[in-house]
């Protein structure tokens, strides 16, 4: 059921984008590219933040293991 609801949601979004493209005319492609590009910038930035946090955690665990405090 969840898959079906996601499919319906994405279809509604696609219909909305198509309607907006028709209304905007020649500018529609530019606005669509702007929206997709903005979304990609946000996703790449979030991914970079996650990778940085993971690297910091890994470095902290290595430093802790080297100092001998990692033993239980």
Sheet of most strands: none
Number of domain modules: 1
Q: Topology as H/E string?
A: HH
Strand content: under 5%
Distance between the termini: 47 Å
Count of individual helical segments: 2
State the share of residues found in helices, binned by percent. over 70%
Spans of at least 5 consecutive residues whose pLDDT stays below 50 are none
Q: Give the beta-strand count.
A: 0
CA-based shape = elongated
Mean pLDDT across every amino acid position: 89
Radius of gyration: 22 Å
Structural class computed from helices and strand pairing = mainly alpha
Summarize the structure in words:
With 72 residues, this protein is mainly α. It has one domain (2-67). The chain contains two helices and no strands. Helix 1 packs across helix 2. The radius of gyration is 22 Å and the shape is elongated. The relative contact order is 0.05. The mean pLDDT is 89.
Features:
72 residues; mainly alpha; single chain
Summed up, what is this model?
This protein is an all-alpha fold. 88% of the residues lie in helices and 0% in strands.
Summarize the helices and strands and which ones pair or pack:
Blueprint: H1 2-24, H2 28-67
């Amino acid at each position: 059921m969840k898959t079906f609801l996601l499919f319906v949601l994405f279809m509604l979004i696609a219909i909305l984008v198509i309607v907006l493209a028709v209304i905007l005319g020649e500018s529609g492609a530019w606005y669509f590219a702007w929206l997709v590009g903005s979304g990609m910038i946000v996703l790449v930035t979030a991914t970079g933040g996650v990778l940085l946090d993971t690297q910091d955690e890994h470095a902290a665990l290595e430093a802790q293991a080297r100092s001998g405090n990692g033993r239980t």
